[in-house]
Write a structure and sequence with these properties.
The chain is of the alpha+beta class. The protein folds into two domains: 1-45, Ribbon (Pemi-like Protein 1, Chain: D); 47-76, no CATH class. The protein has three helices and two strands; from the N terminus they run αββαα. The protein has a two-stranded antiparallel ribbon. The longest helix has 14 residues, at 62-75. The relative contact order is 0.10.
Length: 76
């Protein structure tokens, strides 16, 4: 599939409906732009819990990890 879209003066781009449908993109979704081998790949970002985001971003002590697991288990 090849689709074109123009960039507005504010740097915005409309994602063609066929691409949104194919990727399952709906209003409110977050889009990921990834540079790969000199090209940009656009993907629908996975939804993560706040605990997963924090775990991925910073190394935590074992006690902090236990606390986050407890919070996660309580919410599930």
């Amino acid at each position: 599939m090849i689709k074109l879209s123009k960039v507005t003066g504010k740097g915005q781009v409309t994602i063609p409906v066929e691409v949104r449908t194919d990727l399952g993109i709906v209003i409110g979704d977050t889009i990921l732009f990834e540079k790969r081998n000199g090209q940009i790949v656009i993907k629908k970002a996975e939804k993560k819990s706040m605990v997963e985001v924090l775990e991925d971003s910073t190394p935590f002590s074992k006690s902090t990890m236990k606390m986050m697991k407890k919070i996660r288990d309580e919410w599930d």
